[in-house]
Amino acid sequence: MGGKWSSEAKISFAAWRKRHPPSKETREKLSISMTGKRKSPAAIAAFSAARMGHVVSEETRFKIRKSLLGQKHPAEVKERIGAALRGRPAHNKGKKMSAAACENIRKSIIGRKHSPETKQKMSDSQKPIATAHMENPPADCQCAPHRVWLRTRRTQLEQILEELLSDFPEVQIQKSFGRYCVDAYLPPPYHLAFEADGAYWHSSSKQQNYDARRDSDLFRRFDLPVVRLTEVDLNGV
Hints:
The chain is an alpha+beta fold and 237 residues long. It has a domain at 144-235: Endonuclease, Chain A, CATH 3.40.960. It has helices at 7-19, 24-34, 41-51, 58-68, 75-85, 99-109, 116-135, 144-151, 156-164, 199-202, 205-222, 231-235, and strands at residues 172-177, 180-186, 192-197, 226-230. It has a 4-stranded mixed β-sheet with strand order 1-2-3-4, with helices on both faces. A hairpin with a 2-residue loop joins strand 1 and strand 2. The protein is elongated and about 95 Å long. The protein starts with 6 loop residues before the first helix and ends with a helix.
């Protein structure tokens, strides 16, 4: 009792177990007998120390992966795993993945298709985020859904601008140029863009810097001058 096996004995026993694997009935009995039992911290530490430096072969990795494919944890197990990991920092936090690891992940997901159930779960999880973004967009948001959504929500200043340019029948409202969308556009021979800048969105230095970069980019890429009319300008018309 309490004796330790020598390295030769361990190797010999492992070879014998490989030749005489336990039957399915025996494995089920072992599983039932171990259900609900937890190893002591000392046992866990001893097992971890024994496994330190041990490299799992590719064959074993493949067998483990194959045995786990398609398995789903019951809700009780998921809750236990979540409770155990809650508050712990991620194991890879602050670590940069190697190029080889990134390539392996990329190859593993090529051609993979999500089930309809998974797609629905992903959609349901993103809907609250998308709704919050659309209802409270950042001042410099240029996402495609938001640009389309904005076209149906005209501000009072944009309506004034539209009325101001109503003498030009060719005027185009919410015209897109690349990733930008201007409030109003007069096509050639004018080739001129107009923006209605409300004080709430365009008074900060951050937004003014963004507007300047945006105007410069529009002129550089599309040779398009931008006329910006402030809230004071439009309310005084």
